[in-house]
Amino acid sequence: MPCHRRSGTGRHLRARRPSETKAKTQDMTTAAQQNQLVALFRDATVIPVLTIERIQDAVPLARALVAGGVRTLEVTLRTPVAIEAARAMMAEVPEAAVGIGTILNPADFTRVEKLGVRFGISPGLTPDLLKAAADSALPFAPGIATASELMMALTHGFDVAKFFPAEQAGGIKGLRALGGPFPNVRFCPTGGVGEANAATWLAEPNVVAVGGSWLCPTAEIRAGNWAGITAICQRTLKALKGA
Ligand SMILES: O=C(O)C(=O)C[C@H](O)[C@H](O)COP(=O)(O)O
């Protein structure tokens, strides 16, 4: 599939900086990190976008998702307990591959890279955020909705991107149009993806995974309906297997 080719942006190597908790080493390139991310995303297929309001929900929620076969989790920085929630999930639910979403600026990135999470995601990008991410060892997928944003991401070596908001920013037709000039970019569409259309998105050759909140509705989290969340995950994965 053409989507497996790398864009070959030729990342320069950077020296280890002792001040960073998780330093980028001399033999590490952004391209290698992007390949790690592709492997993780492909394995995940679906990535729940989690908004955790109460710290005590973090571990049972992660367990419910893992029980439903969904192991790669995006904890968004939308709530004050997000960082603590990610820490608790990593400590108590080692089967989960925990990442952080809604990274909006370099300060967020710095907080996140110290956590030891598997990946970072943002809904959009800024030059400062891309620079922070390119200097870091943490695999990162910037959010893009336009060709210009994608070009900026590529300039910094990022050829795996979150396409956000996927449905609202052109849907499958929009993604296909972007695939023309950028055949080597791999995408994780998020925003408006759900049980009804996940398979359609995943059938696109340049889509490595889809993300969304449908796997973990706020109402179910608030109600502590962990069995219900497990059931949504199982139903979704079953439908995708049959697709
Ligand atoms: O918070 C973030 O970091 C985001 O980038 C946005 C989320 O990924 C989408 O809002 C999820 O969209 P829905 O699945 O339609 O709810």
Write a short abstract of this structure.
By secondary structure, the protein is an alpha/beta fold. Helices cover 40% and strands 14% of the residues. α3 links the parallel β2 (72-76) and β3 (97-101).
Helix content: 40-55%
The end-to-end span amounts to 19 Å
Bound molecules: 2-keto 3 deoxy 6 phospho gluconate
Order of neighbouring strands in the sheet with most strands? 5-4-3-2-1-9
Instruction: Give the overall average pLDDT.
Output: 91
Q: What are the segments in which pLDDT stays under 50 over at least 5 consecutive residues?
A: 1-21
Question: By helix and strand content, what is the structural category?
Answer: alpha/beta
Total beta strand runs? 9
Shape: globular
Main sheet summary: 6 strands, parallel
Q: Name the beta content range.
A: 5-15%
Q: Output the number of helix runs.
A: 10
Work out the radius of gyration. Answer: 17 Å
What is the H-and-E element order?
HEHEHEHEHEEHEHEHEHH
- State the fourth-level CATH superfamily: Aldolase class I
> Which CATH first-tier class would you pick?
Alpha Beta
How many independent structural domains? 1
Quaternary assembly: single chain
CATH architecture, please? Alpha-Beta Barrel
Here the CATH topology equals TIM Barrel
Catalytic activity: 2-dehydro-3-deoxy-6-phospho-D-gluconate = D-glyceraldehyde 3-phosphate + pyruvate
Pfam families: Aldolase
Subunit structure: Homotrimer.
Enzyme class: lyase
